[in-house]
Amino acid sequence: MYNSFENKNILITGGLGFIGSNLAHKLLEYGANITIVDNLNPLYGGNFYNLGNIRDRVKVVISDVRDSELVKPIIEKSDYLFHLAAQVSYIDSLNIPFEDLDVNSKSTLNILEICRKFNPAIRIIFSSSRMVYGKADKSPITEQSETNPLSLYGIHKLTSEKYLLMYYKDFGIPCTIFRITNPFGPRQQIKHNKYSLVGWFIRQAMEDKTIKIYGDGKQLRDYIYIDDIIDAMVLAASSKEAIGEILNIGSGNSTRFCDMVSSVISCVQKGRMEFIPWPDNYEKIETGDVSVDISKLHRITSWYPKHSIQEGIQLTYEYYKNNYSYYVPVEEK
Ligand SMILES: NC(=O)c1ccc[n+]([C@@H]2O[C@H](COP(=O)([O-])OP(=O)(O)OC[C@H]3O[C@@H](n4cnc5c(N)ncnc54)[C@H](O)[C@@H]3O)[C@@H](O)[C@H]2O)c1
């Protein structure tokens, strides 16, 4: 099944980050030729250390994905494009609205224009987010549920989705869109708490700190372990049925926020939690309970997640125990 990647040229934008680097490790096992374009913007999770022992077998171009002149020749010769580079923080999206628009919408349009002119057969996988749904009025959320994003991040991800679907319909550029819930696992940034909270909490527990929970912590979230995401992306990229589709990707089992934190504390055996009021700027964009239907992805690719949240937290903790110093900024050590 995965022979489809052997000797194929694959571009991963944002490939030094959490999802992109885990994907690079997997695709290299399948014999792909990988090029990464990443600008290592310090706000995000780009980290050379994420490549580990594959560093010499992957071509890395340190540049902005918005640089058309630079990405054009790479796109021209690529069979697959995983477009993961993003302004990832939905919290920050209101502070840097035009940057968010630029990176999360315009870069996709830019890429699609290059594809249309120079390589319309390229297979695109795009990382969208559950944030496009906003506050769900019905649960579980299916791909047909209404989209009412509460943040510019969600609006701009949704705009990218629309571009991709239009370019598929009008120009036949094959794409698959993943609406990712709450991913976690090794190689995730733990520098700050603006996104990727599981990793951040593991760090806090390792440092024996108090983990602050907004509100009562009862909100449901769907946490999905990274290896399960990578499996799904790889399967979808090799599936004809996934072309032109939007796919939810989550574990399919939601967990209360405070239970996730309890699992972290009991795994690390350090740290404690404290409940505090919601900050104003967070409450406005809080989505409430999230529970997603992942049956479409299962139907199309036969994928099913293999890791429970507890297993995932254990594996993630072990990773940071061995690699802590590569993920925590020097000045904070
Ligand atoms: N982490 C999450 O909670 C989450 C949830 C849903 C969807 N997603 C999406 O998944 C994708 C990957 O996110 P991640 O979790 O791996 O985050 P990450 O921060 O680890 O990776 C993002 C990467 O993109 C790079 N990047 C940012 N702007 C760039 C630009 N202009 N040009 C080139 N590179 C740039 C960063 O340097 C970083 O390496 C993103 O599209 C994100 O929106 C993430």
Description of the molecule:
The chain is of the alpha/beta class. It has 2 domains: 2-183 and 224-249, NAD(P)-binding Rossmann-like Domain (Rossmann fold); 185-221 and 253-291 and 308-332, UDP-galactose 4-epimerase, domain 1 (Alpha-Beta Complex). 37% of the residues lie in helices and 17% in strands. It has 10 helices and 13 strands. The protein has helices spanning 18-29, 68-76, 97-118, 152-171, 197-206, 226-237, 257-268, 280-283, 295-301, 309-323; strands at residues 9-13, 33-38, 59-62, 80-83, 123-129, 175-180, 182-184, 210-214, 220-221, 223-225, 245-249, 255-256, 272-276. A 7-stranded parallel beta sheet has the order 3-2-1-4-5-6-11, sandwiched between helices. A two-stranded parallel sheet has the order 7-10. Helix 1 (18-29) packs across helix 6 (226-237), helix 2 packs parallel to helix 3 and helix 5 (197-206) packs parallel to helix 7 (257-268). The longest helix has 22 residues, at 97-118. The radius of gyration is 19 Å and the shape is globular. The protein starts with 8 loop residues before the first strand and ends in a 10-residue tail after the last helix. The model has no long low-confidence stretch (mean pLDDT 95). The structure holds nicotinamide-adenine-dinucleotide. Nicotinamide-adenine-dinucleotide binds next to helix 1, strand 2, strand 5 and strand 7.
